[in-house]
Description:
By secondary structure, the protein is of the alpha+beta class. The chain has one domain. It has helices at residues 140-149, 157-173, 179-191, 195-204, 209-214, 234-246, and strands spanning 40-47, 81-83, 118-125, 130-137, 153-154.
Amino acid sequence: MELADEERYHDEESMLNYYKHRKLGRYSKVPGSGNDEKGYFAFIRAVYNQRFYEEDVSLSPEGTLKIAVRCDAAAPKNMPTPTALHEEDEETGLCKFCGSSAPVYGTTNSHHASLSNATELRIPFHGRKGFICYLELADPATEETEVYENPNVTRTLHELFKLMLEWEWVYDNLDQNDVCAVLAHDILEEIDLPEMLRSWLWNNVPDMHVAKFLKGDPDARLRPPASTIPPMLPEFEGWCYHHIHETEPIWKYGSR
């Protein structure tokens, strides 16, 4: 693909070996390779005037450190904080987002991922309207469930951006106020994803579950075969590198 000079990124080091990432070269992991088997990405909400605590000791896996309060509990109240999309309805006991009767972790608003069972948690993209996070969970089966059940989760970063583009299309074309559609639109608008990268994602990354569902695929929730998912485009990797390391973080969520 020929790129105009203004669309090129000239980095001496890629995200894969940049020292700040250390083992988090997984940001640019290759679908189907060994580093593709663990960890996932999600686009999540930015909320205001909320604080998050672990509410139920029984939810923490046996033998793990129970996290009682998040590191951003002391942040200014007008600062956006990241949270998953699940939320229990106090009247019905069901999740407002997915309808599940399973409880949500107080630190994350997720049915499966908490600060107690996450072995790795990074938030590479910070925004006033939403965040993109990366997690690894202690239990591989729990990770698989998280990836399969959630409409805002993928294994690789470029798959996540393709998924967000699909949700944005729903927002723009189907007059839908689905929380994922609105959130994807808002995040993409805020981070200003370049048109060249949008075009590469649309033309090269296979359909994610939104497009598959709209096309009537009965297995829409299943990930496309890894063999059909290309490696991350170097220009996409370079844009991510710049965005992660040259934009001011909203809060000190550890290394990005």
